[in-house]
Please model this.
Amino acid sequence: MRKVILALMIVMVAAGFAVADTIYLRDGRTIQGTLLGFINGRFVVRVDSRQTNFPRANTDPNVARGERTYDRDILYFRPEEVERIEIEGRTMDDSRVETVQVTLESNWIDTGVDLRRNDHIQINASGVITAGRTRITPDGLRSTDASAPLPRAAEGELIGAISDNPRAPIFEIGSTRDIIADRDGRLYLTANRGAFSDARGSFSVQTRHPRDMTLENQGDVYRRRNPGIRSRTRPGIDERERERTQQEVTIVVPATSRGTDTGIDVTAGEPITITATGTIVAGRRTGEVGPEGGRSTGFGSIVGTRPVPTAGPGALIGYIRMSNGQLSSAYLIGSQLSASAPADGRLILAINDDDYSDNSGSFSVKIRY
Model:
C-alpha cells in the first residue's frame, strides 16, 4: 500500500488535459474524466459529463475517512481506493510533464523542476523570441554572441543549468534534448543571448522528469522546495577575486586512479591553479616518479594507450566531465598548472598510465579556483 501511495502522490497534475484520464478503483469500477490534482489527501477528479455510472450527491468533501464524496461532477478518492490511474492513456508513474514559458530577461527562468543527481529529464521546446527584428527559435541563430552565457554556442539557443549557483555548468538544449542531471538542484532555463532589453515573446518548453516534490507529510500537506533566483548578470571582478581566494581544496590522487572526482565544478575560461607534490611508483618499469611523470618512451607513448600519450607515465593529468556525461580531452597538469578551465563541468584528476595494477603511492594536489 505504501508503495502505491508514494507512486501516486503528486501535488498538482496539470488540469488542462484534452484527453480523458481514467481512474481504476479497487472495487472494479472505472471513472473517466480529468485528474485535477491531489488535495487534502484525496485525488480530485472532474468526471466526464457523459458518464452516468456514479451517484450524484452534494456533501462536504472534508468528511470522515473511507466515505466517498461528490460535488456536482467533482469526485474525491483516497489513495487506498485507487488501483491505478492512466493520464491520457498513459499510466501515471513517478514522472511529471510540465510546460513553462521561457522569456529572455535579466534572470533565468525557474522551471519549478527539482532534480536529483542522475535523474533523467526530457526537454522539448518550441516558439519564437523576437530580438529587435530577429526571430529566434530554440535552436538559436547561425551567429554567436560573445556576451552570452555560452559564448561559443548559437546565439539565442535554449540553454539550461541545474542550481541557482552561478558557478554551476551551463548546457545547450535547443529544440529537444535528453539530460542526465549531474547534481541535485532546480532546473533553470534561458536563451543564450547577452542583451535582453529588446526581447519579446517566449519559448514554450515542456519537461518530462521524475517526481520533484519534497515529501513533508504534515497532515497530508506536501510542499515544493523553496526556489532560488539565478541571475544572468555575471559576477564583478572583485567578487570573482574574493571567491578565488576563499576556495581552495587539497585532494589526494592515488597512483591507481583512473579518475578522482575533485568535487569542483568549473566554468569554461575560469582561471584555476593546481599544484601537486609527492611521488608514486608507476609500475616496475618506470619506477618512482613525481607529478611530471617519467620519460615518455615505450609502448604506451608509441600506440597512444595512455590518456595523454605525449606526457610521461605516472604524470598527474586532468579532464572535465561535462553535464551530458561526455569527457573533455585529457591534459597534462604535472607539478603545477595555472590555466583556464577548458570546458564547463566537473574537474577530474587521474594518473597517466596504461597499467595501474602495479602502481603505488599518491600525489597531494592543491586546487585554487
Remarks:
- The first strand starts at residue 21 and ends at 25.
- Helices lie at 2-8, 237-246, 283-286, 299-303.
- Residues 95-210 form a domain with the Jelly Rolls fold (CATH 2.60.120.430).
- Residues 1-18, 55-71, 212-226, 236-245 have pLDDT under 50 and may be disordered.
